[in-house]
Structure formats: structure tokens, C-alpha cells
Amino acid sequence: MIRHRTFAAALFTAAALLGAGVAPASAQSSAAAVSCYGGARQLTYHYSPAAVEYGTYTTSSRCNDINLRLITDEPGVYLDACVVFVDHTTKCNNGDAYTTHGTEWGTIATNVKDGTHFVVRVHAYDTDAQNVTFQIAY
């Protein structure tokens, strides 16, 4: 009998939480990702032998990281990107290193404080990257 009461109490608590609008942790994580990427800014890179800067942008509470992905149907097209925190330096984060990005969301900078000013510095991975549309989420 006690086991049935405990189970019933757990079901009642879960129903009450769902009724109150509290989603399970897995749904909350998914919602945070949708919120972060849902506010993504779309940009277009035009091939240049030198790196191209986009911004200045300001981070918000919408995302914890600065993320980038390409929007292209051309296989084998990639962009190299880094973040420059313009209030502090003229060099890329992460030891002045670029990371290579494709069509999946990838992180350029992690654990960035809200209100941080930055530019995204992009250059072609190779000459296949002529006119590439990409998104940043921050």
C-alpha cells in the first residue's frame, strides 16, 4: 500500500509541475538551444584573401556561447572563424586561433559574459568558399 501511495504522489507532483508550466530538464535544455539559435543573425561571406570582420555585436543572455554554422548546399565548403573581444584586444580568442566550421552549429567562444562586445573574424578554408551564407548565434 505504501508503494502505491509513493507512486501516486510522484505522479501527482509531475502532473502539477507540468500543469504549472515547468518543463522537464531535457525540454528546458532543448528550449534554451532553440532560443539561442532562434535569434541567429544571417550574414554572407564573399571570398577574400584576407580575413573579413563582421560586427561589432554584444552578447546577451540568450546564448552562453558564440556559435557559427554555414548555410550551404555545396559539399566541402567550410569557413575558418574566430572571435575578437574588441574591448580587450585586436587578436582572436583561444590563442589567436581559428576554428573550421561547416553546416552544423559549432562554438567559436565559450562561456562569454553578457554584454561583451565582439567581432567575428572569418576567412575561407579554401577557394571553394566564394559566396557563403552563414549564421552566428550569441
Q: Can you characterise this structure?
A:
The structure is a single chain. By secondary structure, the chain is of the alpha+beta class. It contains three helices and eight strands; from the N terminus they run ααββββαββββ. The protein is globular, with a radius of gyration of 21 Å. The chain starts with a helix and ends with a strand.
What's the SSE blueprint?
Blueprint: H1 2-19, H2 25-38, E1 41-46, E2 52-58, E3 66-71, E4 79-84, H3 93-96, E5 99-101, E6 106-109, E7 117-124, E8 131-137
Antiparallel strand pairs: 1-8, 2-7, 3-6, 3-8, 4-5, 4-7
- So what's the overall shape? globular
Largest sheet: 4 strands, antiparallel
Radius of gyration: 21 Å
Chain-averaged pLDDT: 83
Give short descriptive properties of this protein.
138 residues; alpha+beta; 4-stranded antiparallel sheet; 3 helices; disordered N terminus
Compact overview of the structure:
By secondary structure, the chain is of the alpha+beta class.
